[in-house]
Structure formats: structure tokens, C-alpha cells
């Protein structure tokens, strides 16, 4: 078995290969004069694991080409971060179900797909091959434990992310809760934990994805007013669009950490171990 990866997922791809004890294959990518991508995968094996996050349109096209280049090999596709997964239904007439279009395109030429903390697990139905979603919540918890943080309160940004917060907190036996938004007027809202008091406590807000960071920045201000000792953030997928990372630091977060599903300077823990475990099953 050989592991190959696309350009923007090289670090995670190499880590997955290391966890599996498998060689990391070489993939050469360049461009034609008109801007089209050219790709060549060297010395493929009978069984191939492709590791590729869909961080942008170029990554999507590169992955399509890499899957096609692996024709004749038994391919398992790992999608650490899957772009286009948010448009999972038709909200207005004439819209595509974007994740369906992408999932069906990626299903051609592969036998199995593994995703990591996909935003909506129900979209796995759109793949035309067996697909499994894994959570790296334990890896987030292990990272937080390694920082030496003492008895933090793990907070999800909403009720929908409570299961993820529970997964982060459970390994160390920490308390967890979720934030609840209460509208006080047409222009004023209050954001606070639903059940637990944050006064004098270290707080970590965790989620599967941080996009712009706007909601978390507002929450940080209010948690500070409620007496939180310190506020950190940790997520699986650090998108940080529109200056999202800087927004969180400016809002008072003492640390913002993400995994390597999207490779960032703040990628402080890895999805590789969990991915390798899923591949061995």
C-alpha cells in the first residue's frame, strides 16, 4: 500500500503514511500555459490511500485528476476537510445541492471514503461508495491536556456541537456545556452557558469548524464579563476566512488551535492517528 496526497495536504498525508508504516508516494503537479493543472503520480501500488482536503477549487480539480491517475489501483480516499459540504440542501429554486455534486464526482474510481468531522454527517449518503465519518474530538482533548490547563470548562458554541464538546471533555473528565443565545431586544443578544457558571474558570470553546470567528468573538466578550479566567478556542477545521484568526486574538482568546486537516500555523494537533485507525479497520 502507498499513500499519496495533494499539494495542500502534504503534512497530514506524510503523517498518515508514518502512522501506517506505508511509503509516501510522489505526485508532481504543474500548470500548462493556459493555467490548467497537470499531474503525474509516480510508482503507484496495487492499493493506494489518497489524502486530500478540499480547501479550494484548485484542490478539488487536483484531487479529481489524482483519482483518475490512480486508475487500476484499489483506492481509499481520505477527505480530512471537505469543502462544499455546507450546501447540503436546496434552499431556493435553481440552487444545486453542492455537496451531492462534489460527492458523486469524487466517488468515481474509489472503493471507500473516510471523512473527518464533516459538518453534516447526513451528506455521506451522497457518496456512491461506502463512506465513514470519524471524529478527532479525543485528539483535541489530548492537546488541551498537554497544555497543562487546569480543570477547564469545555463549551460548545451551540447545542448542535454539544456532542463534540462531550467528546473533547470525556477523556479527562472535564465538565462541558453549550452556549445559548438569548435575544434581549431587536439589537441586543446575550450569549452565556446554558447550565454552568464560568466565573473564575478557564474556558475552552470547541467546534468542528471555525470560519469567520464572529460568533466566538462575541461570545468571548460576554464570557469575560461573566468572570471567565481565560478563554481559548480549539477546532478541527481552521478556515479562518476574512481575518477570522486575528479576530479571535483581538477578542481576547489566549490561544486558538486547530488540527492539520487544513494546514495552518496554528495546527497544533493532528488527525493522522485517528485516520490511520479508521484505515486499519
Structural summary, described in words:
With 281 residues, the protein is an alpha/beta fold. The protein is 29% helix and 28% strand. The chain is built from 8 helices and 14 strands. The chain has a 7-stranded mixed beta sheet with strand order 10-9-8-11-12-13-14. Strands 1-4-5-6-7 form a 5-stranded parallel beta sheet, with helices on one face. A two-stranded antiparallel sheet has the order 2-3. Helix 1 (10-20) packs across helix 8 (272-280) and helix 6 packs parallel to helix 7 (244-250). It is globular and about 60 Å long.
Overall strand count: 14
Low-pLDDT windows of residues: none
Structural class: alpha/beta
Number of continuous helical runs: 8
- Helical residues, percent: 25-40%
Strand order of the largest sheet: 10-9-8-11-12-13-14
Distance between the termini: 15 Å
Provide the residue-averaged pLDDT. 94
* Assembly level: single chain
Largest β sheet strand count, sense and barrel closure: 7 strands, mixed
Order of helices and strands: EHEEEHEHEEHEHEEEHEHEEH
> Which geometry do the CA atoms define?
globular
Structural Rg:
20 Å
Q: Any chance you could write out the topology, listing elements then pairs?
A:
Blueprint: E1 2-5, H1 10-20, E2 27-31, E3 37-41, E4 47-51, H2 57-69, E5 74-79, H3 98-107, E6 112-116, E7 131-134, H4 137-146, E8 153-156, H5 162-170, E9 175-183, E10 189-193, E11 202-210, H6 214-225, E12 230-238, H7 244-250, E13 255-259, E14 267-269, H8 272-280
Parallel strand pairs: 1-4, 4-5, 5-6, 6-7, 8-9, 8-11, 11-12, 12-13, 13-14
Antiparallel strand pairs: 2-3, 9-10
Helix pairs in contact: 1-8, 4-5, 6-7
Amino acid at each position: 500500500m502507498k499513500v499519496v496526497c495533494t499539494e495542500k495536504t502534504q503534512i497530514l498525508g506524510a503523517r498518515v503514511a508514518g502512522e501506517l508504516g506505508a511509503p509516501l508516494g510522489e505526485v508532481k503537479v504543474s500548470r500548462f500555459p493556459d493555467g490548467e493543472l497537470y499531474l503525474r503520480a509516480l510508482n503507484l501500488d496495487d492499493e493506494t490511500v489518497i489524502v486530500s482536503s478540499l480547501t479550494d477549487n484548485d484542490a478539488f480539480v487536483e484531487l479529481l485528476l489524482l483519482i483518475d491517475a490512480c486508475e487500476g489501483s484499489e483506492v481509499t480516499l481520505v477527505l480530512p476537510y471537505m469543502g462544499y459540504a455546507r450546501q447540503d440542501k436546496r434552499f431556493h429554486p435553481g440552487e444545486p445541492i453542492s455537496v451531492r455534486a462534489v460527492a458523486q464526482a469524487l466517488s468515481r474510481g474509489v472503493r471507500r471514503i473516510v471523512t473527518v468531522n464533516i459538518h453534516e454527517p447526513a451528506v455521506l449518503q451522497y457518496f456512491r461508495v461506502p463512506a465513514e465519518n470519524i471524529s478527532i474530538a479525543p485528539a483535541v482533548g489530548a492537546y488541551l491536556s498537554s497544555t497543562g490547563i487546569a480543570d477547564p470548562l469545555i463549551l460548545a458554541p451551540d447545542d448542535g456541537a454539544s456532542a463534540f464538546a462531550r467528546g473533547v471533555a470525556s477523556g479527562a473528565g472535564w465538565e462541558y456545556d453549550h452556549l445559548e443565545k438569548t435575544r434581549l431586544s431587536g439589537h441586543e443578544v446575550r450569549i452565556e452557558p446554558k447550565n454552568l457558571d464560568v466565573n473564575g474558570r478557564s474556558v475552552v470553546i470547541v467546534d468542528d469548524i471555525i470560519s469567520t470567528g464572529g460568533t466566538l468573538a462575541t461570545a468571548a466578550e460576554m464570557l469575560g464579563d461573566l468572570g471567565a479566567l481565560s478563554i481559548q478556542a480549539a477546532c478541527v477545521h481552521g478556515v479562518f476566512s476574512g481575518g477570522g484568526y486575528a479576530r479571535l486574538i483581538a477578542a481576547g482568546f489566549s490561544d486558538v488551535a486547530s488540527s492539520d486537516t487544513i494546514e495552518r500555523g496554528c495546527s497544533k494537533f493532528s488527525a493522522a492517528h485517528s485516520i490511520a485507525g479508521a484505515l486499519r479497520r
